[in-house]
Design goal:
The structure is a single chain. The protein is of the alpha+beta class and about 425 residues long. It folds into 2 domains: about 100 residues, Helix Hairpins; about 300 residues, Bira Bifunctional Protein, Domain 2 (BirA Bifunctional Protein, domain 2). Helix content is about 40%, strand content about 20%. An 8-stranded mixed beta sheet has the order 1-11-12-13-16-10-9-4. Strands 5-7-6 form a 3-stranded antiparallel beta sheet. A 3-stranded mixed beta sheet has the order 8-14-15. β12 and β13 form a beta hairpin. α3 runs antiparallel to α4 and α5 packs across α12. It starts with a helix and ends with a strand.
């Protein structure tokens, strides 16, 4: 959530910032509600003071044995005035919060202008893009021949978008996860294993609710939600806390399964592993001092890039334009790997700086140089999601005889095996 002070201090900044995202936000209504709220607070305080004064007068008159009926009537009148003002204040604050909760973060000044993915900027590239040989097969054909997964049986027990990994496929998936976690631990991230279900407050704190309710799997009886990413539980580890600045930055990595309904995305890259309802991902979450978050964002992104590079997969890093960023991001990099048979770039990591957007919703604070509490900045990035990494690995490292060459960094996690065969 954005800083409400900006509503009265700089509404034009809000208007222009949201227009950069392609959004005509109800800024005028926000200003009206903020003015009404401040006016009603004044009315409530005045009514309280008058009621207290009348109460004191009643006590005085009774002690003197005088008639206190007028003062008693004044107490009731001021009480009614206070109750009416408080009801209006509550309604104004509720509408103001509902609007603000549905509005995205403000883009950082370094974010390029744009309306869609066509306007994203290539920040850097690595590796050589090669055409797939004529004998090459797509990732589904390679995986099925090696019996790495079984989509049909997954669909039988859960529906489309829930794969079953089998044999070497299950081991390869586990190897990727273990290697990702080890790499992050060596880079100073503390590994945690959070719950896969969270409450409404946790979803709201990270910006998933109320905006993306239709994308979540919900256990209505207990009002719990299956997590769409480890970002949600890990960020909320420090909800309603003040982080010690001496311990900053605080960096976590976590492996979880992720669950997304993907409502409204039917027909978009649905083949094989390109779009799933359940998938595995290792996430990095970073809590920073406000003045350090831009530098932290670059470091976080470089950490995700290092994994793709060590796997030997050509990639590019995109700086997303103002109109293509996620809801809570102030600035975002996407890392995409090249799938030679699909002949397309596939996103495997999204690294975002949320600045104080999530921290304001979840009340995550640290202390400034003066020792006073200030909102921390939160960042996160996939490090990495496995499905599209698997697509790129299968299409890049397949051999003409149908086997799969194992990237060197993964071999220790597969018992030293360098080639997978059926």
């Amino acid at each position: 959530m954005i800083n409400p002070r900006l509503i009265r201090e700089n509404p034009e900044l809000l208007r222009k910032s949201w227009l950069r995202r392609g959004l005509e936000a109800p800024v005028d209504r926000l200003v009206e509600l903020d003015e009404a709220r401040r006016s009603l607070i004044s009315v409530v305080e005045s009514a309280k003071a008058a009621k207290n004064a009348a109460s004191a007068e009643v006590g005085k008159l009774k002690r003197e044995g005088s008639d206190a009926s007028e003062a008693i009537a004044a107490i009731k009148s001021r009480g009614d005035e206070q109750a009416e003002a408080e009801a209006k204040l509550a309604a104004s604050e509720k509408e103001l919060e509902e609007i603000l909760m549905g509005l995205p973060n403000l883009p950082h000044e370094s974010v390029p202008e744009g309306r869609s993915s066509d306007d994203n900027v290539v920040a850097r590239t690595w590796g050589e893009i090669k055409d797939a040989p004529s004998w090459a097969k797509d990732h589904l054909q390679v995986g099925e021949a090696l019996k790495l997964f079984d989509f049909k049986r997954g669909a039988k027990i859960s529906g489309a978008g829930f794969p079953v990994y089998t044999g070497w496929g299950a081991r390869l998936e586990r190897a990727l996860i273990a290697w990702f976690l080890d790499e992050h631990r060596q880079a100073g991230f503390l590994e945690v294993q959070p719950p896969l279900m969270v409450n409404r407050a946790a979803m709201t704190g990270t910006g998933n609710l109320p905006k993306f309710a239709d994308q979540l799997y919900t256990c209505t009886e207990d009002e719990l939600f299956l997590i769409p990413t480890a970002e949600v539980p890990v960020t909320n580890l420090h909800a309603d806390e003040i982080l010690d600045p001496k311990e900053m930055p605080v960096k976590y990595c976590a492996y979880t399964a992720c669950f997304r309904r993907e409502a409204g995305s039917y027909g978009k890259d649905t083949k094989g592993f390109l779009r799933l309802h359940q998938f595995d991902k290792v996430e990095m979450v970073w809590f920073s001092q406000p003045e350090s978050s831009q530098a932290a964002h670059e470091t976080l992104t470089a950490q995700a890039e290092s994994l793709v590079k060590k796997l030997g997969l050509p990639y590019r890093t995109l700086l997303l334009c103002s109109g293509d960023m996620g809801f809570g991001a102030s600035k975002c990099y996407d890392i995409e790997v090249w799938a030679p048979v699909e002949k397309k770039w596939l996103e495997v990591s999204s690294c975002s700086n949320f600045e104080d957007f999530q921290a304001r919703r979840a009340s995550i604070r640290t202390r400034g140089a003066d020792g006073k509490p200030v909102l921390a900045h939160t960042l996160n990035g996939s490090g990495l999601a496995t499905p599209r990494i698997l697509v790129a690995l299968l299409e890049t490292y397949q051999q003409q005889d149908g086997s799969l060459l194992v990237p060197e960094v993964l071999r220790p996690y597969l018992g030293g095996i360098d080639v997978l065969r059926a």
